[in-house]
């Protein structure tokens, strides 16, 4: 029997940290036989951001993934990461939804539930842990380790004692950013063991370069389970390499008893798999000691980089990382872990991209400042709270106590699309996204985002030319197009002469914007027209034009034509970087035009609503 047990994270946190959670189930299943043979204490394979990514990007059924993995891993515990009352979404859910989600997760194959709360508010853990125990599964209470003026060893020991009193079977020290230092880990493990007498499970990202040493000192202090990741998806923002720690402990009193050659075979498989996902590789994959200051966790760093890239603002990453600690202090030093990492990170990005701190405040920050996520660990900046929520009452009770049961309501809303209770729970996590997903599943049109072929070195350095012959696929039909000539008419339209499957055609194209060739061979954009072409949103030209602070998707329009509004009233809700942002009226007046609809992709250079001053 090994003295130290290992949980491997390659099927969840490893690829979440390094390739933005994009690994597909089809790339997991072929290696499960060997993973099952290793003898890991558990394999973390579900929860965290995997549920969201399955639906949003991979267009997979996350429940089906879990069932496939359960069948492929008959001898190994499957572990999931559960956000307490937030489950796998970004808000608090009613208790009946929490109980149903835990039961269905257990029914479909989860053995170990690692349950945490981003605020370390024990009130938000109780119902989840009760549900895990009722299902006869292993409840692991996880305290989110962080550093701040209000976090110290006695604070974390009290949290661990509270988890033990709730009936947890193990205690996890969840060091999501790699902040835990080796000697602090030793003292913390000793203190928690003495206070709870429960097995201790340590989890530490390798971002800062401390995690290997931290695990070793934690083991010396009595931790009996450690989190690692096979080499192909280890290190950097991920976790210490499984092979390295297995080798380090071999032949000692802590020998894991695991086979290095078998783990190397598994790592070689994932090394090939990782190449497929090159387009999602984070640029922040090495050791980065800045995390000791900005505290951005491993699971967030690659997603934040990817989201800034989508905003065309990856060059602002350093500025966002510098802003994150300031926002965190304003919010009372919450640990940075989902969803608070997204809440703080997105607000920091907004502060940087809009050029003014709290010029635009996300709905999630407003809810946080109203106490709707739980009790802040430290003192909240009252000026920021006043700016964001005014005189709205701050919640002091357990946030979920304010929520009525909602499972039946959710079931009724989606009954025409849901085939099973699992579908209802998917809808509960991400209503608009899941509804579209369920409709596409019924139509047989679910398609994952494409995996692009990696360009060769020759392609990357070669001059680029526009194609004059290509295939176009439209509504399932593929057409062969060859461009034979083009011109310009007096109306400004471009006639293009093409052959479509061998038949000559003339196509008239009316450009809505163009790039003009500048002197010296460069290019300069022409001045955009103020008036909108048919079907386009106009460009903002006066203070009554309402615009978004950053690119995103319209999730709700809050006003109607003819409605009177005051400056600061909510006009639309935009989703950007997975957070919702209420766009407010810049002036008082009457709404005379609405150019945006729910589901529209919008950018800051679009007028979305027009207000006529009174």
What proportion of the residues is helical, as a percent range?
Answer: 25-40%
Low-confidence stretches: 513-534
Work out the helix count. Answer: 22
What percent of residues are in strands?
15-25%
- For the largest sheet, list the strands in their spatial order: 1-2-3-4-5-6-7-8
**Radius of gyration based on Cα positions:** 26 Å
Give me the secondary-structure category: alpha/beta
3D shape: globular
Distance between the termini: 78 Å
Q: Tally the beta strands.
A: 22
Largest sheet: 8 strands, parallel, barrel
- Tell me the quaternary state: single chain
Mean model confidence by pLDDT: 87
Give the helix/strand layout:
Layout: E1 5-8, H1 10-18, H2 25-28, H3 32-38, E2 42-47, H4 50-58, H5 62-72, E3 78-82, H6 95-108, E4 112-116, H7 126-134, E5 138-144, H8 153-165, E6 170-175, H9 182-196, E7 200-204, H10 211-221, E8 225-228, H11 242-249, H12 260-275, H13 291-294, H14 298-310, H15 317-330, H16 340-353, H17 363-369, H18 382-389, H19 407-414, H20 421-429, H21 431-443, H22 457-461, E9 469-474, E10 477-486, E11 494-500, E12 503-509, E13 515-517, E14 523-525, E15 545-546, E16 552-557, E17 564-565, E18 570-576, E19 579-584, E20 589-594, E21 601-602, E22 609-613
Parallel strand pairs: 1-2, 1-8, 2-3, 3-4, 4-5, 5-6, 6-7, 7-8
Antiparallel strand pairs: 9-10, 10-11, 11-12, 13-14, 15-22, 16-18, 16-21, 17-20, 18-19, 20-22
